[in-house]
């Protein structure tokens, strides 16, 4: 796999959505999105139709990978101003910072892209992983369980 990263500075973002604590071994992504998608229209101040799949990992998460280590996963949209927060939803502030952005084309359930990013690209990149949210930006070309799907994977990095 040879996918180039585009290094970008992301301004601070405010997201609104739902979160769930999970691990790779006890993945509850489907449950999270099933709870969010029917209610996304309750968010009147969404900036776009793009969906944000966000992972907030504990600071030690990548030191020694353990598939049972828990992290927070979010299903959210970006908002500009929040006047009301729908019941069962919360705000997530994504701080500004540098990100490696990968355009991934293929089935969204394929773990090979992440093995490539963390196992090959990152060690050879000259960047270090930063402790900020990781996310996938799901736009118009994202299609669940479709090999022709496209998404942008954003990995927080620092020099």
The value of Rg in angstroms is: 15 Å
Give the termini distance in whole angstroms.
24 Å
Say what the CATH topology is. Answer: Multidrug-efflux Transporter 1 Regulator Bmrr, Chain A
Domain unit count: 1
Instruction: Output mean pLDDT.
Output: 94
CATH superfamily: Regulatory factor, effector binding domain
How would you sum up the global shape? Answer: globular
Largest sheet: 9 strands, antiparallel
| Name of the CATH class | Alpha Beta
Q: Roughly how much helix do the residues carry, as a percent range?
A: 10-25%
CATH architecture: Alpha-Beta Barrel
Please sum up the structure shown:
The chain has 159 residues and is mostly beta strands. Helices cover 14% and strands 38% of the residues. It has a single domain (5-158), classed as Regulatory factor, effector binding domain (Multidrug-efflux Transporter 1 Regulator Bmrr, Chain A, Alpha-Beta Barrel).
3D architecture notes:
It is a single chain. The protein has a single domain (5-158), classed as Multidrug-efflux Transporter 1 Regulator Bmrr, Chain A (Alpha-Beta Barrel). The protein contains two helices and nine strands. The protein has helices spanning 29-36, 112-125, and strands at 5-10, 13-22, 51-56, 71-78, 90-94, 97-105, 128-129, 134-138, 150-158. Strands 1, 2, 3, 4, 5, 6, 7, 8 and 9 form a nine-stranded antiparallel β-sheet that branches. The longest helix is centred in the last third of the chain and has 14 residues, at 112-125. The radius of gyration is 15 Å and the shape is globular. The model has no long low-confidence stretch (mean pLDDT 94).
């Amino acid at each position: 796999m040879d996918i180039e990263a585009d290094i970008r500075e992301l301004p601070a973002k405010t997201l609104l959505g739902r979160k769930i604590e999970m691990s790779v071994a006890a993945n509850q992504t489907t449950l999270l999105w099933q709870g969010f998608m029917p209610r996304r229209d309750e968010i009147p101040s969404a900036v776009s139709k793009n969906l944000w799949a966000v992972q907030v990992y504990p600071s030690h998460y990548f030191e020694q990978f353990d598939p049972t280590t828990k992290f927070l996963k979010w299903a959210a949209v970006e908002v500009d101003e929040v006047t009301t927060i729908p019941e069962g939803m919360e705000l997530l502030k994504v701080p500004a910072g540098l990100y490696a952005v990968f355009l991934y084309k293929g089935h969204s359930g394929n773990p090979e892209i992440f093995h490539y990013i963390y196992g090959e690209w990152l060690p050879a990149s000259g960047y270090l992983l930063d402790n900020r949210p990781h996310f996938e930006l799901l736009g118009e070309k994202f299609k669940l369980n479709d090999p022709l799907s496209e998404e942008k994977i954003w990995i927080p990095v620092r020099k």
